[in-house]
Structure formats: structure tokens, C-alpha cells
Amino acid sequence: MRSAWIRWSALSLLATTVPACAPPGPGGAPADGLRDVEVRVTLPEGLSDGPVDGRLVVVLSNRDDGEPRFHASTGAEAVPMYGIDVEGWAPGTEAALTDTVFGFPAGRLGALPPGTYRAQAILNRYETFTRSDGYTVKLPPDRGEGQQWNRKPGNLLSAPTEVTVGDGAVSIALELADEIPAVADFAEQETDWVKYVRIRSDRLSEFWGTDVFLAAWVLLPAGFDEHPEARYPLAVFHGHFPSSFSHIRTEPPDTTAPCVYSARFDLDCYNRIQQEEQYGLFQQWSGPDFPRMLVAEIQHPTPYYDDSYAVNSENNGPYGDAIQYELIPAIEERFRGIGEGWARFTYGGSTGGWEAMAVQVFYPDEYNGAFIACPDPIDFRAYTVVDLYEDRNAYYLDAPFKRTPRPGHRDYLGHVSATLEEMNHYELVLGSHSRSGQQWDIWEAVYSPVGDDGYPRRIWDKVTGEIDPEVAAYWRENYDLMHIVRRDWATLGPRLRGKLNIYVGEMDNYYLNNAVYLAEDFLASTTDPPFEGDIGYGARDEHCWNGDPTQPNAISRLRYISMFADRIARRAAATAPGGADVSSWRY
């Protein structure tokens, strides 16, 4: 199996084709060759100021609920979608997707099953960045939406159009007609309790060759204005891009709001449940006995993803240092933070769980504890279900006579809804060069060295799954958190003693528990110095169990602050150095 590339010289298009041995798509796609199917998309005059670069994605959905761009997924409900790169696409011209264009889940466009579809095209627009490392790259900048390709302001889209695909040749014509509008100013969401901080990062602006900003939502403690002499510990909440500080609500739940069903948790009226928890937290937070501290939920999107993973990276730039030495001091200065490592803590789940552990490991003296829930793989011997150092192929078990696909997503009973190959092929439709803005690509963008073309080197061939051992070795030495912890425990261990607290469900949907088992093997047995942290598992719990055995995921995920605040306050007071302020914030 191999990846082939076709250059569309007239339109400067780069189209990925699926390997010739790929199976036909579902629903009766042709088995003997490809059907002659073509999608032509027009960029009309006046919709852009000039030629544009980006990823043109066409979604063909058999659903009638909402727009096709919102139907893209990797699960059982996945609908056909196809993508090509466009460079210098001039207004008034067409871009063509032909029968060999790579798609998911229906293979190539020519293998699209017969039927009636609603088609929609969307252009994820790229900007050109001239970085300080000498590379020039084209990437989709975040525009305040948190790197969502189907919601990004400035992206161009067509109206959904009904089309019929039969057994013969098919030509589909779409026209980009609308531009997604800008998001509202985040500062307008400030309240008496929640403030918004935004700074220009000198480090990141220098790296990217343009202004780059970091921001945060900051939750103020009760009595902040009444106690001007108080200085506070800081808890940094890591996770995906937050468009608001959604964990607290100062008003009682709106019982008149229409109920919204949560398919993830199989709960009706989950929106009301969330409001009840948010209001409950506010009642705790504003009450007389709750620990007083600052909580900051940070915004650090990159051109590759909705957050940077909070570490320095060859491809993303020095986000770790920018957050640690620019954003956090700005927060602590403005809101009277204590500003010392013994009074800083971090927590988060999933991506935020990995980040919480990473910043504690990479900046061990800058934090006094990390609460790490359902973390992304913290040991790359269990990169979900792949051993990056021993396995040869990420998509299939290594075997001489059979091809057993590796699972990518399961439920608590072990039922698999997507394979690793499917999840990665979905990303390949959305973007080449690790530009999909999705999970597997951001791991490459963060962990990989820069390739000769200025984009991240692939950890594995995106089409075939063949692992690159040279890239894997780079990952191990620089971002495999448990390898780093084991390698450096003699010097790192004393600085991490009692600071790492890891929680994960034993049926995590993405198999993230596997890496935690490997972490426990070392941490629970090491004695010089001892670990003295906490590791917990939720029986039959899915993603993202965070350490509360008394509540289901649907509830515990809404209680991070109330779960960890008391532990943070007690550890800060117990481990503060002599002469430190352990009283002004304890009122």
C-alpha cells in the first residue's frame, strides 16, 4: 500500500489518493473500478480579496438534520467526505475533486455508493507564516473559535445542495456563497466573578513572525474585593479551548429551557443537569468554608489545534515557556497571586490531563501538585493501543498471515465504533501535513521534529500506518512523559514527590488506561525517592473519569474544582516554605 499524489497544475491543487488496494465504500459501491464522479466547486468573484489557500472539503450527507458540515465524524454515523489542498485559488474559477480523490469512509470519490445526498463544500482558509526557524508554512489560524474547521470565522461555505448519485457518471456543482462570521468579544462575558485576561506573547510572536496572543478566564475567590491584603494560590485548569468559564453559574438553573439530550451519557435534559452543577459550585465557591484561590482556565490555540499542549515544540513554538513565564505571571500580578511554585497547582482531563502532568514534569519547581484525569498517552509504549517502539504498523497487528485492525474507540462494554485507521483517514481528508486540527495530527505537531518541508514529520504513514522508528525515538526522548520520569527519576523524583495524582477509567473509550498501568508499574514500586502520589481507576468507567468513585462521569466531569480545591489548599499550607504567606488567603 502506498500514498500517491496528483498535482492539479491549473488550479494549484494537491489531492491525496487512496491506495489501490483499499476496499470499496459501504452501501454497494462499485467493486470493478471507479465510477466517474466529479465535484466542481466555484469560488465566486467578490467572496475573497484575492487568491486563497486552504483545504477544500466536500461532505455528502444522507441526513436531513442540519448542515452536512456538522455531520462529519468517525463513528458509525460517519458520512462520506473528501478533501483537497488549494493554493492560489483565484476568484471566478473552479476547483475540481475527481473520482480518485481520497475520502472517508467511502474510499475514493469514485467509490461513492449510489443514493441521494445533501452536499456541502467548505474551505478551511490558510495563512502563510514565516517562522523564526526559517520555514514558511501555510496553516489555518485560530480565529477565536478554538480551531473548529466547520465553524471557523472567515471560512467559506456553500449552501447544502441535494444531489443524486446513480450507477453512471455524476457531476456535482457547488458554489461557495457565505463566510462564517466572527465570534463575539470574549471580554464582553466578564462578570464580578469571572475575568478575562489576554496578553501578546513576545516568545510566540517572534517564533511565528506575527502577533500571537494567550488568554485565560480567571475565577476570583469570594471576598476578593473585601480582602485587598490577601494573596492567593493559583490553580491552572488545562483542557481544550474554552470559549467561556463554563463551570460556574451565579443564577439558579433555567427550568424553562428546552431539554437537550446527551448521547454521550444517555441522559435527557443534560443541559439542566449541567446548570444545576454550575449553580451548586457557585454556592460552594461563594460560601463561608470553601478554600480561597484563583482558578485560571487558559486559551492557547495554535495553527494546528485548539490548544498547544502547553509545552515547547519544534512545530508549535515555545508555548510552554510562554504560558509559564508570560501568561501566568500576568494573571498573578493582576489578581494578587502568590506567584511562587509552592502555591501553584494544575489539573485537567484528557488533553488537559496530559498537559497537567507535562507542566508538572517539565516545570517541576513551578507547581506543587498536578491532578491528572484520563490523560492522553503518558507512556508511548501504550500510545492508546500501539507500542511506538516495538510495533511496525499502527493500524494492524503485526502478523505474517492476517490483518487484524487495531481499535480506536470503544464503549464501556468494549464495543468498537472506530479503528485507528478510520480515525486517521478521517483526519487525512481534513488536512495534509498534520493540518486537520484533530487529535492524531496535533500529537504529531507537538511531539515530532520539523520535516524538511517545514511541517511535522509523520510518526507513521497516514495512509498505511507504517511507523517511522526514527521519529518514535525523538518522541521518546522529548515527550514520552513516563520515559522521562523513569530516565531522570534520580534528580526529578525529589522534585515530584507527592505531586502526581493520576485517575482513569478502566474502560476509557480511547484505551488511555493502558499507559496509566505502565506508569503505575514504575511509580508504585520506586522508593528512591518514593512516589507518594495517588493513582486511581474507575471500574467500567469511560472517558474521562477523574477520580470520584461516587459519581458517574456525567457528574464528576463537572466537579473538578469542588473535588480538588480542598486538597490544593491543604497541600499548599502544609508544604509552604518558612515565612511564606499561608494566612492572608485563609479567611
How far from one another are the termini? 66 Å
Q: Just name the CATH architecture of the largest domain.
A: 3-Layer(aba) Sandwich
Specify Rg, calculated over alpha carbons: 25 Å
Q: How helix-rich are the residues, as a percent range?
A: 10-25%
Strand content: 15-25%
Biggest beta sheet attributes: 11 strands, mixed
Helix and strand composition category? alpha+beta
The number of E-state strands comes to 25
Number of domains: 3
| Mean pLDDT metric | 92
Q: CATH H-level name of the largest domain... which superfamily?
A: Alpha/Beta hydrolase fold, catalytic domain
Provide the low-confidence segments as ranges.
1-32
CATH topology heading of the largest domain: Rossmann fold
Q: What's the shape?
A: globular
Structure annotation, total helices: 12
Could you name the CATH class of the largest domain?
Alpha Beta
Quick description:
By secondary structure, the chain is α+β, with helices and mostly antiparallel strands. The protein contains twelve helices and 25 strands.
